[in-house]
Fold this protein.
Amino acid sequence: MVGKCPEVVVMSNKTLGLSPQLHDYLISVSVREPELLTQLREETAKLPMSQMQIAPEQGQFMALLVQLMGVTKALEVGVFTGYSSLIVALALPKNGKLVACDVDEDYTSIARRYWEKAGVSEKIDLHLAPALETLDRLLEDGQAETFDFAFIDADKRSYPNYYEKSLQLVRPGGLIAVDNVLWSGQVADPEDMDKRTEAIREFNQKIHEDDRVTLSLVPIADGLTLALKR
Ligand code: CA
């Protein structure tokens, strides 16, 4: 569930730990953001929850992963205004599919408008319902191990559940990417006992010990865990 929750105050939508100067340099020599995605980012920046949008360098990285893996069927938990779904859908082949889960009609109406403009609406199947219900329905529907890629970026306290369901839905060799795992650095601050910080910390620990996946926590944007299903 992404929604009007207060987590925006802590999450970062820029790569952490770089000086502003080095960050600007990285963006200038790496990011090749299509015009429509720039427009979407600018429109989203006017919203109070704009930090829930992923960083452009992260979007581009995810699109590269999608191409690298030859993904044809993808899952997204947490759409918000659609930056990640749009960049992933653009990287999918013509026959590719993205199953997108969210509960917020207002934010996803912005996403839909951009999917339409980009000509990728046909590739995206939006489920406006609690994501766990949608994921259960996909499993009941016999779609276990049919997804190549999953991106989890919704309410942090449900991460363990989203992860477990996604792990059933991706094929062996499929990839799960989990966003905000460095949580603006607060995960490393033992004084920070915020419920969401603790949830992410526990999730990170759990996945570290999970031998069902090959793991890398990539310090891009707010931290992106990559878990490859064995
Ligand atoms: Ca996020």
The radius of gyration is 16 Å.
